[in-house]
Amino acid sequence: MEDEVDRLVAAWRRERPDLDVEPLEVLSRVSRLARHLDRARRLAFAEHSLEPWEFDVLTSLRRTGPPYQLSPGQLLTQTLVTSGTMTNRIDRLAQRGLVERLPDPSDRRGVLVRLTTEGQDRADRALAGLLTQERAILGELSDRQRNELASLLRQLTAPFDNVPG
Question: Which residue ranges does the record assign to the HTH marR-type domain (predicted)?
Fold first, then answer.
C-alpha cells in the first residue's frame, strides 16, 4: 500500500539523490497523522461545545480525582501555558460555569480552581467522544501493533518530556 509520504520520499530521492531522506519515512507520517488527529480531536470537542484548550484544562482537573481541584500554578505546569493565558482561560471557563474559583485554605492569598458538576460532565462526554475518534484513527492495528507503536513513540517523545524547563 502506497501513501502520500511514499510519493514525497520518491520525489526527493529523484531530485536530491545526494541526501539521505530516510527520516521523512517516519517523521512525515507522524506529522501527517498529527494533523489528522488534530482534526479528529477538534470534532470530538466541538460536539460537546469545547475548544481544545478548554478540554485540556477541564481534563487536567478531572484527572486529579475528587474534589477535582488544582491551583492555577499546578494547571500551568500541566497545560504548559503562561500565567496570563491561564488566568484568561480560568475566567472564561468560570463564566461558562465549568469551573469555579475557591479560596485556598492553605494560602490566604491563593485560590483553587475546582471543576463544577457541569464541567465534569462535559469533560467526561468529550473524553468518550475523543476515544471513539482515536480508535477510528488506529483502525485495524492489532493490540500487539498498538503496543509496539506506543513503545516506539515513547522512545522518541520521552527525551522531550523529561527535559527541565
Answer: 23-158
Query: What pTM did the predictor assign?
Result: 0.82
Pair 112, 131 in one domain: yes
Same domain, 60 and 129: yes
- One domain, residues 68 and 147: yes
Per residue, what are the HEC states of the chain?
Answer: CCCHHHHHHHHHHHHCCCCCCHHHHHHHHHHHHHHHHHHHHHHHHHCCCCCHHHHHHHHHHHCCCCCCEECHHHHHHHHCCCHHHHHHHHHHHHHCCCEEEEEECCEEEEEEEEECHHHHHHHHHHHHHHHHHHHHHHCCCCHHHHHHHHHHHHHHHHHHHCCCC
pLDDT at 23: 96
Is the pLDDT reported for residue 107 higher than 90?
no
Same domain, 61 and 132: yes
The total number of structural domains that make up the chain:
2
The CATH number covering residue 142 comes to 1.10.10.10
14-72 pLDDT, tens digit each = 999 999 999 999 999 999 999 999 999 999 999 999 999 999 999 999 999 999 999 99
Question: pLDDT at position 78, please?
Answer: 86
